[in-house]
Specification:
Blueprint: H1 2-9, E1 22-27, E2 30-36, H2 45-53, E3 61-66, H3 78-85, E4 89-94, H4 104-111, E5 116-118, H5 122-128, H6 130-138, E6 142-149, E7 154-156, H7 168-180, E8 183-187, H8 188-194, E9 209-213, H9 224-227, E10 234-239, H10 243-249, E11 255-260, E12 262-263, E13 266-267, H11 269-278, E14 283-286, H12 290-298, E15 304-309, E16 318-319, E17 335-343, E18 346-353
Parallel strand pairs: 3-4, 4-5, 6-14, 6-15, 8-9, 8-14, 9-10, 10-11
Antiparallel strand pairs: 1-2, 1-3, 7-16, 12-13, 15-18, 17-18
This protein binds NADP nicotinamide-adenine-dinucleotide phosphate (NAP).
């Protein structure tokens, strides 16, 4: 199962809209076939492993990070392909919550007389596809809020300068996350102040869709996020009423303008995330600034916060999160599943907000 997990991990973020799955076939203690979901979700891991194993799949044990699919889509159901391949036993990491599957893949195997063991390394298998699972269950992608703060909780100095608060190693981790996410989102204020590219600048990197939230069309069309060469598009999300003006202002084949409903002049982030889910996106990385961070937390679309806390005291500048208007300590957003890691001189704190996410 660990091997199957490693295979699937190598494709994390590249298989959208499908989950990234690993499959390993073992017969008589020997590995006879293995595979992971292909880019864009095809072929399925089981198909690759069965093809590699050929006749050697007969009598093998199949290790699968996720329940095999039970529905005929663009390819035949994997559970049936495993039965036809003659496997003798299946070991499954976690169940697939997708309604056409949800237990049916296991049922097909069991009905064919194949013993199935489930829940092996379940947490790891689930974590690997937290994006897919969240999209299926909540009809929105998994939201991650990443910020780099000083020890006194600022994300920019008094002039608005924020480059760089965290270490080069911390920033390299963020580039890895960009590769694993379908989209990265920033607010108009960040584009105006920092002019970020939001591309994934590491070896074998892949750019996510770069999203700018700009209700009033303040960001210049010449900003790098719109003009930088990238295989991925840039998306400008604005209020529906500003769509015609936005289309004129950002008339650029690399930029897609999307209208979203709003509330008090702000973009309704829940509606935006629902639209992202309709596009099949599973994981979205929110990279600030402070107003977008507050708004995203308020909208309860954040499943994980990741703060890189640098050993610096700014003493002035922008607090990490704005607009929450928390009056008492007991009104604070609590965090659970807290992990702390040291990255160069920084502390990376990751946790899950306690407020029930939508
Ligand atoms: N250290 C870090 O990790 C980090 C990361 C990013 C940025 N920063 C720093 O943060 C500063 C920018 O942060 P900021 O708080 O001023 O701006 P921001 O959060 O990047 O952008 C906020 C703007 O986005 C627009 N917007 C539209 N809908 C929104 C919604 N639902 N929620 C929030 N914003 C919405 C609003 O402008 P309109 O009303 O005009 O649409 C709003 O003023 C810069 O100094 C930058 O250097 C630091």
């Amino acid at each position: 199962m660990r091997r199957a997990l490693a295979l699937a991990r190598a494709r994390a973020g590249l298989t959208t809209p499908n989950p990234s799955v690993g499959c390993v076939l073992v017969r008589g203690g020997r590995l006879v076939g293995q595979g992971a979901t292909g880019r864009g979700g095809r072929p399925h891991a089981e198909t690759v492993a069965l093809t590699r194993a050929g006749r050697l799949a007969r009598g093998a044990t199949a290790y699968l990070t996720l329940e095999p699919c039970a529905h005929r889509g663009r390819t035949p159901a994997c559970a049936r392909a495993l039965v036809a391949g003659g496997i003798a036993r299946a070991v499954v990491g976690c169940l697939d919550p997708y309604p056409p599957v949800r237990g049916r893949g296991i049922a097909i195997l069991s009905k064919a007389g194949i013993p199935v063991e489930t829940g092996v390394l379940e947490n790891e298998c689930r974590a690997l596809n937290e994006g897919f699972i969240t999209r299926v269950r909540r009809r929105r992608p998994f939201g991650i809020l990443k910020l780099a703060t000083s020890l006194d909780g600022r994300i920019a100095a008094a002039s608005g300068d924020s480059q760089w608060i965290s270490s080069a190693r911390s920033r390299a981790i963020v580039h890895r996350w960009r590769r694993e996410c379908d989209a990265v989102v920033v607010g108009a204020g960040t584009v105006i102040k920092d002019n970020p590219r939001l591309t994934c600048r590491i070896a074998r990197g892949r750019d996510p869709v770069r999203v700018v939230i700009d209700a009033r069309l303040r960001t210049p069309p010449t900003a790098l996020v719109f003009t930088e060469r990238s295989a991925a598009t840039a998306l400008l999300v604005t209020l529906v009423k500003n769509l015609p003006r936005a289309r004129r202002r950002y008339a650029n084949p690399r930029v897609e303008v999307v209208g979203c409903r709003g509330r008090d002049g702000e973009i309704d982030l829940q509606a935006m995330m629902a639209e992202f889910a309709r596009r099949g996106w599973c994981k979205v990385l929110f990279e600030g600034g402070a107003h977008l961070a507050g708004s995203a937390l308020r909208a309860r679309i954040i499943d994980r916060v990741a703060f890189f806390i640098a050993p610096k005291v700014l003493g002035a500048g922008l607090p990490a999160v704005q607009g929450l208007e928390t009056r008492r300590v007991r009104e604070a957003i609590g965090l659970r599943n807290v992990s702390v890691r040291r990255i160069a001189g920084d502390a990376l704190i990751e946790a899950r907000p306690v407020t029930r996410p939508r």
